[in-house]
Amino acid sequence: MPDRFQILSLDGGGLRGMFSAAVLARLEEDLDVHIVDHFDLIAGTSTGGIIALGLGLGLSPRQVLEFYTQHGPRIFRDRTHLRGLRHLVRAKYPVAPLRAALTDVFGDRTFGESTKRLVITSYNIGANDVYLFRTPHLPTLKRDWRERAVDVALATSAAPTYLPGMPLDGARLVDGGIWANNPSMVALTEAIGPLGLPLSAIRVFSLGTTTDMRNRSRRLDRGGLLPWASDAVEVLMRAQSESATKQLRHFIGKEHVLRLNPTVPTGAIALDKVDADALIGLAGHESRSASPSFTRCFADHDAEPFVPYYPARKD
Fold it and tell me: What whole-number distance in Å separates Cα of residue 225 and Cα of residue 243?
C-alpha cells in the first residue's frame, strides 16, 4: 500500500474552467514539472471533468487552456441575440458546437485510454441518482472504459438550463454540479473506500473556478418562490462546495489540503461569459502565490504508473 496518494480535484464552472487550466499551466511552467506526474487520481465535475479528461488523455494544461480560449467563444455564441427568450423554455445553447469542439481535441478516443485514474461526475435525472464515470482502476469497473471521451465530457457538462441533457445507454445524464460541483469528497470517498487507502496517505489539491461574494437580500429570509428564484441554484452549489472543503480538511487535515478558489467581483464572471485576459491574469497571480505550497505539499511525490484492469483496445 502506498504511503502517499495524491488527488487533483477540479470544480465545475463553465468557461471559468479557463482559470483552472491556466493555474495548472503556470505551475507546470514555473516549476518545470508535469502536473499529472504528481497525482494518482483526478476527479472532475462539468468543466473540471473536461479538464480531467484532457489531462488523462495526454493533453498538457497549456493545451487545455488553448481549448478554452479557441473554442469557448464559439460554444457559447449568441448568434440570434434571442438566447434570453430561448432560455425560458429550452436549453440556452445547442450542444452541437460543444460536441464539435470536444471531438476536435478528443476524436474517437475512449474514456479507458486515460493514463490516469479518473472519476467524473454526472447525474441521472431519469433514475434520480448520482452517476460516476470511473476508469478501470478496479476489476469491478467493467463498463465505463468503453465510452467515448466526448460522450463522457458531454454528460458531465450538460449544465441544466444552459445545455441539453446527454442520453447514454438509456440514462438521462446532466451536469455533475447538480450534486458535486466540488468533487473533492467524491475523490476522497473513492480513495478510502474502493481503493482502500488510509486517510493518512492522502493529499488533495482542490482547484475551483473562482467565486463571487454576493450580498444576500433579506427577502430570502422570508422564503417564497420569487425571492429565491435567482439565488437558489447558486446558493446550493456554493454550499456543497464549501461543505466539501470543510469535510475534506476535517478528515485528512488542513495541512494536507490546498484549496485554490479566489473571490472575484459579483457579476464579473459567468458560466457562459468571461473576460479571458482578466481570468488568465488572475490565474497567474494565484498560481504564483500557491507555488510554494504546491511544491511543499505535492511536488515530492511521483505517482506510480496507472495500469488499467481493462486496457483500451486500439485498432
Answer: 25
Q: Does residue 217 carry a pLDDT above 80? A: no
The model carries a pTM of 0.94
Region of residue 199 (phi > 0: left; psi between -120 and 50: alpha; otherwise: beta) = alpha
Determine the 3-state secondary structure of 131 from DSSP.
Answer: strand
Handedness of CA 246, 282, 95, 120 (dihedral sign): negative
Determine which one of 9, 11, 20, 46 is catalytic.
46
Establish whether 46 is a catalytic residue: yes
Angle between helices 276-297 and 61-75 (to 10 degrees): 150
C-alpha cell at 237: 452549489
Question: Which pLDDT does position 92 carry in this prediction?
Answer: 87
Cα angle 274, 276, 278; round to 5: 95
217 is catalytic: no
Q: Which of 11, 40, 144, 175 is catalytic?
A: 175
pLDDT at 223: 67
Q: Report the C-alpha gap between 247 and 78 in whole angstroms.
A: 40
Lookup: cell for 10: 477540479
Looking from the CA of 205 toward its CB, the CA atoms found within 13 Å total 26
